[in-house]
């Protein structure tokens, strides 16, 4: 399996719980690390900047979050000098066209997925990651 | 005979008439003293034949005398003629020479003649001739029509070519008609009166009237009559008639223009190159409430400024006038009663044909109603766009918050479906319950907000703010005690604010609770509540020394729904959103000033209008 570690960044604890169940059932990755606060995820990434082994392969990122939101996370993420290519997927319940357009402006965003996440959607992501790595 | 001749000589001498004689046979020539005197030769001058001819001015005069003498000598023809001579002293004189031929046996024997100095007379004639020419040239080439009228019968006896141009008649048609025929029916009496008056006065007078042309058109003219003159007991009157249609047209145009300028409802002020008013119309006086005396000699507008007059507009106008440029501007002015009005002013510059600056012309109008409508429209637009924004936000909230819960629920359903293990299915039931609870909680919040927004017409009441704050502090006394927060206020005891009581309660509770919730653990928490009055608002400041927040990063989210910034467990992200909605429902607003780790100041605006 190419996708070893996936970060889930979402303030909604129920969503994180459900995502974890779905992901492990679908064998999307080997390990999941979840963050309710994007700031914490960012700090973790910074800490492991030079250790590709413990950096995630994919990040599932929610947009609407208190404190640091998805956009702010992306802006800070770009500034990091990571050597590893990480697939970022926006995963949100927002169906606002403005959000979808804004997501396209970030090159690092591989795809924009509307909640709810389903087994089928995870399959597509798997393929996307496969293409990249 | 001798006696007779002598008598004759004497008479001639005293009449200054010279006598001369020439014998044709002997060529003997005699000049008397008068002749010699005229020729300015000495008294002892002894003339010989041919001497005389040389005094006649060379050219036509000399040729003529030669010719005359020749025909007299050879054909016996007497003559009587006038000549120009040059005297011995080189003076030019005019003389009259009469020559009688004395015949003896049918042949000319003697030429007898007189010689008379007529220089004076000739000069007079010459001058007269010149005058005639001068006057006839004036008469024929004058720009005015000149009529000479016989006052005994009113007949035009002469007129110049210009008359023909003016009237359309030929000169020969004009001569002989009665002068009144030149005037239209209705002006004849006036013309008659005018000429009659002039006949008595003998002054130069001018009058304006109309004449009728051959084609029947009426032309405005100026009629002047000068001195009359008499020939053969008949008095003639000279009339000068001048076509003044162009001037009249210009005058009419000017009259119309000045009528328009003075009667228009637009205000007009004309200023000189220094910007000093030289003229203003009634509309300007009406609008400004000034008198003409107050306006003239001053810079227009100097009495129209007021406290709210925009300084930028004033300086723009000053600059344009300084540079002698045109400008269009709308300013808030004041009339004499200190009433405000919006004044749309168009200052244009006028130059003459040589591009010299002459005047500023300021045309303006009162556009108060238009500007007020514009302002009202702008306000309406603000309200609408605000409403639209609110609606958009609300839709977004609904779509996002409801969707996030429903998508969770559908994910639960998904995992339930994807397992055959009944135990596992049942284990997901707790998650399902959690999802539905959150959904209903969201719906409740949304409902609460809709209720706030709908009830904008709940009656506001006068509330004593100080009392309300005390009430809230009492309700929160346990948390206040626990948090050790120091709450101070400088609210006047008697300050009354206008608000919906339940909303004010909720707002105070929320803001005080927030100050406690987001206090800094690094220092003793404080909250100062202050009051100020801005425009129509009672503004209440809630200034804390808590965690504060980075407005640049999160300012746009602070009053949104479900936005929390400090990761507190009890932060629901709904409080400020509700506070904002409640204030807006009362036509108020909320603002925040904050710095991370220094504290925040929430300013609530209660509309007192």
TrEMBL record, chain A:
Keywords: Phosphoprotein. InterPro entries: CheY-like_superfamily (IPR011006), Sig_transdc_resp-reg_receiver (IPR001789), TCS_response_regulator (IPR052893). Residues 5-130 form the Response regulatory domain. Gene3D superfamilies: 3.40.50.2300. The keyword DNA damage does not apply. One of its GO terms (biological process) is phosphorelay signal transduction system. The modification 4-aspartylphosphate is found at residue 62. This is Transcriptional regulator. The lineage of its organism: Bacteria, Pseudomonadati, Bacteroidota, Flavobacteriia, Flavobacteriales.
């Amino acid at each position: 399996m190419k996708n070893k570690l996936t970060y889930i960044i979402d303030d909604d604890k129920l969503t994180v719980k459900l995502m974890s169940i779905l992901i492990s059932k679908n064998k999307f990755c080997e390990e999941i690390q979840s963050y309710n606060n994007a700031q914490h995820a960012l700090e973790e990434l910074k800490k492991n900047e030079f250790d590709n082994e413990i950096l995630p392969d994919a990040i599932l990122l929610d947009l609407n979050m208190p404190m640091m939101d998805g956009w702010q996370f992306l802006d800070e993420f770009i500034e990091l000098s990571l050597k590893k290519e990480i697939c970022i997927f926006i995963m949100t319940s927002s169906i606002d066209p403005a959000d979808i357009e804004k997501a396209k402006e970030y090159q690092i965003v591989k795809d924009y997925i509307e909640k709810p996440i389903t087994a089928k959607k995870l399959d597509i992501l798997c393929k996307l990651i496969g293409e990249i790595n | 005979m001798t006696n007779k001749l002598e008598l004759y000589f004497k008479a001639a001498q005293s009449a200054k008439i010279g006598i001369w004689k020439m014998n044709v046979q002997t060529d003997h020539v005699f000049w008397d003293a008068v002749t010699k005197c005229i020729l300015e030769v000495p008294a002892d001058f002894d003339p010989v034949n041919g001497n005389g001819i040389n005094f006649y001015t060379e050219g036509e005069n000399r040729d003529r005398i030669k010719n005359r003498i020749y025909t007299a000598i050879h054909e016996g023809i007497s003559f009587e003629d006038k000549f120009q001579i040059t005297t011995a002293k080189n003076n030019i004189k005019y003389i009259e020479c009469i020559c009688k031929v004395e015949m003896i046996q049918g042949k000319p024997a003697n030429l007898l003649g007189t010689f008379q100095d007529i220089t004076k007379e000739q000069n007079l004639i010459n001058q007269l001739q010149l005058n005639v020419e001068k006057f006839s040239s004036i008469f024929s080439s004058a720009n005015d029509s000149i009529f000479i009228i016989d006052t005994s019968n009113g007949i035009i006896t002469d007129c110049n070519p210009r008359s023909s141009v003016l009237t359309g008649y030929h000169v020969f048609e004009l001569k002989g008609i009665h002068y009144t025929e030149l005037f239209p029916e209705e002006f004849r009496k006036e013309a008659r009166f005018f000429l009659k008056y002039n006949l008595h006065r003998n002054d130069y007078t001018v009058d304006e009237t109309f004449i009728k042309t051959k084609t029947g058109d009426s032309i405005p003219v100026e009629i002047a009559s000068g001195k009359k003159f008499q020939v053969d007991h008949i008095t003639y009157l000279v009339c000068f008639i001048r076509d003044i249609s162009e001037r009249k047209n210009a005058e009419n145009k000017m009259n119309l223009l000045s009528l328009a300028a003075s009667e228009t409802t637009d205000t007009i002020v004309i200023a000189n190159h220094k910007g000093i008013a030289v003229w203003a119309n009634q509309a300007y006086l009406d609008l400004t409430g000034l008198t003409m005396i107050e306006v003239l000699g001053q810079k227009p507008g100097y009495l129209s400024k007021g406290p709210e007059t925009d300084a930028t507009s004033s300086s723009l106008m000053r600059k344009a006038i300084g540079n002698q440029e045109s400008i269009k501007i709308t300013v808030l002015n004041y009339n004499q009663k200190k009433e405000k009005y919006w004044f749309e002013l168009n200052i244009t510059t006028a130059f003459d044909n040589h591009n010299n600056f002459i005047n500023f012309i300021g045309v303006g109008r009162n556009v108060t109603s238009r500007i007020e409508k514009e302002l009202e429209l702008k306000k309406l637009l603000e309200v609408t766009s605000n409403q639209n924004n609110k609606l958009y936000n609300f839709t977004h909230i609904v779509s996002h918050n409801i969707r996030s819960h429903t998508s969770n629920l559908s994910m639960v359903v998904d995992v339930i479906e994807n397992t055959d293990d009944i135990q596992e299915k049942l284990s997901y039931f707790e998650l399902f319950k959690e999802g539905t609870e959150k959904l209903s909680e969201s719906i409740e919040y949304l409902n609460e907000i809709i209720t706030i927004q709908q009830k904008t017409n709940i009656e506001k009441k006068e509330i004593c703010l100080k009392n309300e704050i005390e009430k809230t502090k009492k309700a929160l006394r346990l948390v206040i005690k626990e948090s050790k927060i120091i709450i101070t206020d400088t609210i006047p005891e008697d300050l009354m604010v206008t608000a919906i009581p339940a909303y004010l309660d909720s707002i105070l509770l929320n803001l005080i609770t927030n100050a406690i919730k987001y206090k800094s653990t690094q220092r003793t928490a404080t909250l100062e509540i202050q009051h100020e009055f801005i425009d129509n608002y009672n503004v209440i400041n809630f200034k804390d020394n808590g965690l504060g927040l980075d407005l640049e990063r999160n300012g746009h989210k602070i009053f949104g729904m479900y936005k929390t910034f400090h990761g507190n467990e009890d932060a629901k992200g709904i409080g400020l959103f509700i506070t904002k909605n409640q204030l807006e429902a009362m036509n108020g607003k909320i603002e925040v000033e904050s710095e991370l780790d220094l504290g925040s100041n929430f300013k609530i605006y209660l509309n007192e209008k």
